[in-house]
């Protein structure tokens, strides 16, 4: 049986991913999640003949998923700690995925040392399949880039530090 904390971690990971539906079954416990309805259903079923390859494959996949975001969070915290000469932070106006270029083949919008104006697009934050261009809102120089391409960002999270 899954613990409440494990279920919460699964919900958080599914919510942050682009997956719309998720089914997991292990040791007679089945968990189904769907984003559209927001339902989380947990059922206990009895399996007469457990299949060993499925039981081994499913936990390995679940274990691999929680490790990725855990690695990103400490990296983001350590990047925010160094003090730099700045007087403005460009923050995320929404929860979503940070992209530093319009597409994978293009150059980044801005990097450390670039000059920006108030209307300069500095990145894209993708939320619910909508790509939102984020503008600098201040003229100055990018002193520090605080997030990495493809990283999940929260509302109000600093993305760039600018010396105006």
Structure notes:
- With 164 residues, the protein is an alpha+beta fold.
- It folds into two domains: 4-79, no CATH class; 84-163, Beta Barrel (OB fold (Dihydrolipoamide Acetyltransferase, E2P)).
- Helix content is 26%, strand content 33%.
- Residues 52-82 have low confidence and may be disordered.
CATH C-level category of the largest domain: Mainly Beta
- Tell me which oligomeric state these chains represent: single chain
Count the helices. How many? Answer: 2
Q: Which CATH-level-2 architecture of the largest domain?
A: Beta Barrel
DSSP strand content: 25-35%
Alpha-carbon distance between the two ends: 54 Å
Helix/strand order, N-terminal first: HEEEHEEEEEEEE
CATH fold-level name of the largest domain: OB fold (Dihydrolipoamide Acetyltransferase, E2P)
SS-based class:
alpha+beta
Uncertain residue ranges: 52-82
Number of domains: 2
Identify the overall geometry: elongated
Widest sheet: strand ordering: 4-11-9-6
Determine the CATH superfamily of the largest domain.
RNA polymerase II/Efflux pump adaptor protein, barrel-sandwich hybrid domain
Radius of gyration: 20 Å
* Number of E-type strands: 11
Level of helix content?
25-40%
